[in-house]
């Protein structure tokens, strides 16, 4: 059966369709047409693939997948006979094949499925574990293919996998800069450059991984740490206790930094994150790592909401941890912005071990929320996968380092009473 899809690929899109390997990483400037190309690659793969094929398009957020890709998927599959759209699941079925949209913010919805092909759009904004823990295993049974596509957001997991693609068999890596493709006209590029910062333009149109992430709170501090070699091998030292800085999740992840104070230096020697586990699990993980390195446990720095009582036990999480033999300290209840400023103050003294790679990546990615309607940053952080590590770091900073209260009254001379 020959079915004509209303899609005429541009030159560079056609190159991707023709030369695709099993794994592909495409670094594309804005307005390259990546979503349209990728939706049509999914349709092409389904039309030429195995029976009962399963294909997925994944955006960083489910709402984003619906906004960006759902209308395209319906438009380009509309000519296919007997296609069925499922609006509630963002799914289209046709000829025994299925294409479905997902969000990286709900990775559990992806567990337990198999995939013949997948698009990971704007991978730079996703939790890297979506690929390594969920999508890559889902491709194994049927040897499915994958395309990572997006615009750079600093040297993060997208950068790492692009570098991997450039030197690995079975992988294709390609970069498409606006100055080279000719897709966006020169006068439009000139106008964009006039109203954007150099970093913004370099990132969005010239695919620069070196440009600072727009709105990132700790971009200068983390870039300086990289430049000064303060990210690498930072081993445990047995003479110092190991404090742990926590962000406690219920539905979200719980994040834990392992921290030692070595003179004026702050050594972040380890990092652990998980979800769906009881507090005893985290204490067991901490004790295992601390004892294995010949150290002793120090303070547990907890967020202020650790004082809230749980209905199931009647205890606060602080009380539960203390019953497990831990020495806890509650972080001051300061504003998020004050905590971010405290974290910035200490970063010049911090050294990170490479075992903290997920936490380090989170600090690089932690950024302001962006209002797409008003085209402006909100005065609050974006809540995504990077928030947990960043919050735990912030709680530690405001507890151990930052001045507790800058507005304390000055000492007054004693009053003299006349009798």
Describe the structure.
With 419 residues, the protein is an alpha/beta fold. It has two domains: 11-204, P-loop containing nucleotide triphosphate hydrolases (Rossmann fold, 3-Layer(aba) Sandwich); 224-400, Nucleotidyltransferase, domain 5, CATH 3.30.420. 35% of the residues lie in helices and 22% in strands. It contains 14 helices and 17 strands. It has helices spanning 11-19, 34-48, 62-77, 129-138, 157-167, 178-181, 186-195, 198-204, 219-227, 279-292, 317-323, 336-347, 357-365, 387-400, and strands at 23-28, 54-59, 84-86, 91-94, 97-103, 117-121, 145-150, 171-176, 231-232, 242-247, 254-262, 265-274, 297-302, 328-330, 350-353, 368-371, 376-381. The strands form three sheets. An eight-stranded mixed β-sheet has the order 3-4-5-2-6-7-1-8, sandwiched between helices. It has a seven-stranded mixed β-sheet with strand order 9-15-12-11-10-13-14. A two-stranded antiparallel ribbon has the order 16-17. A hairpin with a 4-residue loop joins strand 16 and strand 17 (376-381). The longest helix is centred in the first third of the chain and has 16 residues, at 62-77. It starts with 10 loop residues before the first helix and ends in a 19-residue tail after the last helix.
Strand and helix map with partners:
Blueprint: H1 11-19, E1 23-28, H2 34-48, E2 54-59, H3 62-77, E3 84-86, E4 91-94, E5 97-103, E6 117-121, H4 129-138, E7 145-150, H5 157-167, E8 171-176, H6 178-181, H7 186-195, H8 198-204, H9 219-227, E9 231-232, E10 242-247, E11 254-262, E12 265-274, H10 279-292, E13 297-302, H11 317-323, E14 328-330, H12 336-347, E15 350-353, H13 357-365, E16 368-371, E17 376-381, H14 387-400
Helix pairs in contact: 2-3, 12-14, 13-14
């Amino acid at each position: 059966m020959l079915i004509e899809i209303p899609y005429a690929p541009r030159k560079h899109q056609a190159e991707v369709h023709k030369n695709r390997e099993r794994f592909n990483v495409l670094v594309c400037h804005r307005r390259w047409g990546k979503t349209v190309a990728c939706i049509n690659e999914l349709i092409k793969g389904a039309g030429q693939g195995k029976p009962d094929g399963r294909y997925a398009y994944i955006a960083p957020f489910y709402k984003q997948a619906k906004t960006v890709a759902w209308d395209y998927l319906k438009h380009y599959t509309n000519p296919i006979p007997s296609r069925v759209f499922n609006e509630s699941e963002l799914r289209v079925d046709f000829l025994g094949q299925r294409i479905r949209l997902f969000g990286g913010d709900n990775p559990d919805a992806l567990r337990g499925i198999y995939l013949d092909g997948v698009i990971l759009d704007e991978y730079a904004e996703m939790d890297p574990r979506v690929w390594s823990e969920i999508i890559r295993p889902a491709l194994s049974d049927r040897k499915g293919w994958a395309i990572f596509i997006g615009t750079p957001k600093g040297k993060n997991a997208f950068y790492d996998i692009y570098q991997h693609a450039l030197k690995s068999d079975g992988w294709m890596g390609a970069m498409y800069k606006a100055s080279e493709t000719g897709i966006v006209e020169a006068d439009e590029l000139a106008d964009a450059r006039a109203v954007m910062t150099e970093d913004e333009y370099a990132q969005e149109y010239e695919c620069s991984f070196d440009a600072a992430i727009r709105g990132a709170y700790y971009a200068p501090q983390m870039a300086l740490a990289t430049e000064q070699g303060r990210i690498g091998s930072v081993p445990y030292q047995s003479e110092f206790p190991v404090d742990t800085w926590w962000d406690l999740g219920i539905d979200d992840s719980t994040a834990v930094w392992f921290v030692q104070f070595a003179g004026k230096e702050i050594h972040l020697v380890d990092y652990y994150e998980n979800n769906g586990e009881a507090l005893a699990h985290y204490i067991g993980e901490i004790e295992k790592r601390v004892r294995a390195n010949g150290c002793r446990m120090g303070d547990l720095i907890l967020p202020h909401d650790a004082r809230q009582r749980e209905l199931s036990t009647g205890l606060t999480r602080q009380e539960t941890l203390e019953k497990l033999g831990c020495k806890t300290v509650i972080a001051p209840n300061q504003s998020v912005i004050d905590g971010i400023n405290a974290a910035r103050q200490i970063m010049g003294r911090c050294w990170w071990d490479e075992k903290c790679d997920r936490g380090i990546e989170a600090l690089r990615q932690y950024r302001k929320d962006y209002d797409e309607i008003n085209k402006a940053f909100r005065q609050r952080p974006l809540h995504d996968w990077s928030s947990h590590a960043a919050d735990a770091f912030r709680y530690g900073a405001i507890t151990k380092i930052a001045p507790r209260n800058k507005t304390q009254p000055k000492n007054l001379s004693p009053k003299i009473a006349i009798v």
